[in-house]
Automatic annotation (TrEMBL):
Organism in which the protein naturally occurs: Sphingomicrobium clamense
Name of the molecule in the record: Glutamine--fructose-6-phosphate aminotransferase [isomerizing]
Annotated localization: Cytoplasm
Protein's gene: glmS
Annotated catalytic residues: K362
Ribosomal protein as UniProt keyword: no
Keywords, in A-Z order: Aminotransferase, Cytoplasm, Glutamine amidotransferase, Transferase
Signal peptide: none
Biological role stated in the UniProt entry: Catalyzes the first step in hexosamine metabolism, converting fructose-6P into glucosamine-6P using glutamine as a nitrogen source.
Length: 367
């Protein structure tokens, strides 16, 4: 049956609001709540033997992969290479035995990602794929399919597929960590408890919809917007910038906070909104000091953080968006919501075609 918009104005809006449900649906096949365990569905793969993970994807799926790189290295201590598929497929990458190649794709039909997969297969890698369309070419080609259960995604700008990918990748990282002896049973049970709270946490994030709508006029007139984040929030900054440029046609860049002084700070003046993703935690002070460098040059800051972070650093910001606190393997899933909503409301304010932005295709099946 055709997918309906229901009471929503756009598919993208509907898909943003579906996230608590579809992420929960996805997690159901990865989490065994009563045993306090995370298990990948139908897989008898000995992850303990994996000595390197290579992640390849395009677009939003690539940014999900970048978050996973931080997670896999931090929690499982397995080295991760990551590349966009269009680069990977032509650079003759070195792939040694014992490697697992992980492809991430909503459609499972992206031409460059499929070509990269074929290369990794020739290189005798174990091929795993995080896919939303179970009948896709990529799902057929992979040794192991790690499905997302986001349901059909109609809006060209990916939203719910991204958070479902992150949920699967969090489960994958935790599973690998467990197989590698880097995550204790207690830590696993604790993570499972946190994963069960994800839908509720996403609902809390979505409760800020109206606040964020009221900020759209702060961003809509801008020519350039900068997104800053550190660690696992750096890919989120890039995803935020991608969402904004895709649907509002405003030039936006996502940058690693600490790298800003090597170039983009030259762009800052009082016409450049700067979106800072800074949950409290070990990297908070570092990101805030980068934020202050922006403020000192007149940059107008929208700070996305939790209550503690906003209490510490919210003063002087043009606006703040308060997110619930979350486990590191959940926090990027939650912070995806405000950047999606901000892009959405800015695009609505500008009157662009949110679901069918110019020049873009839902799935890029030619090179
Ligand atoms: C296109 C879409 C993006 C998507 C990318 C990768 O550019 O517009 O939203 O992230 O392709 O697509 P995939 O289906 O491989 O995730």
């Amino acid at each position: 049956a055709a997918v309906e918009k229901g009471n929503y104005r756009h598919y993208m809006q509907k898909e943003i609001f579906e996230q608590p449900i579809v992420v929960a649906q996805t997690l159901q096949s990865y989490v065994r709540p009563f045993e306090g365990k995370i298990a990948l569905p139908d897989i008898d793969l000995d992850l303990a033997g994996v000595n390197r993970v290579t992640i390849v994807a395009c677009g939003t799926s690539f940014y999900a992969g970048m978050v996973a790189k931080y997670w896999i290295e931090q929690f499982a201590r397995v080295p991760v290479d990551i590349d966009v598929a269009s680069e990977f497929r032509y650079r003759d990458p070195v792939m040694e035995d014992g490697g697992l190649a992980l492809f991430i794709s909503q459609s499972g039909e992206t031409a460059d990602t499929l070509a990269a997969l074929a290369y990794a297969k020739e290189q005798k890698q174990v091929i795993a794929a995080v896919i939303n369309v179970p009948t896709s070419t990529m799902a057929r080609e992979a040794d192991i399919v790690l499905p997302t259960h986001a349901g059909p995604e109609i809006g060209v700008a990916s939203t719910k597929a991204f958070t479902c990918q992150l949920a699967v990748l969090a489960a994958f990282a935790a599973n690998l960590a467990r197989a590698k002896g880097k995550m204790s049973e207690e830590e696993e049970a604790d993570l499972v408890a946190h994963l069960r709270e994800v839908p509720e946490t996403l609902n809390q994030a979505l409760d800020h919809d109206e606040d964020i709508a009221s900020m759209a006029h702060l961003v809509a007139p801008a020519r350039d917007v900068l997104y800053l984040g550190r660690g696992q929030d750096y890919p989120l900054a890039m995803e935020g910038a991608l969402k904004l440029k895709e649907i509002s046609y405003i030039h936006a860049e996502g940058y690693a906070s600490g790298e800003m002084k090597h170039g983009p700070i030259a762009l800052i003046d009082d016409k450049v909104p700067v979106i800072v993703l800074a949950p409290s935690g070990p990297l908070f002070e570092k990101t805030v000091s980068n934020m202050q460098e922006v403020a000192a040059r007149g940059g107008k800051i929208i700070l996305i953080s939790d209550a503690k972070g906003i209490a510490e650093a919210g003063e002087g910001c043009m606006a703040t968006i308060e997110m619930p606190e979350a486990h590191p393997l959940i926090q990027p899933i939650v912070y995806a919501v405000p950047v999606q909503l901000l892009a959405y409301h800015v695009a609505v304010a500008k009157g662009t075609d949110v679901d069918q932005p110019r020049n873009l295709a839902k799935s890029v099946t030619v090179e």
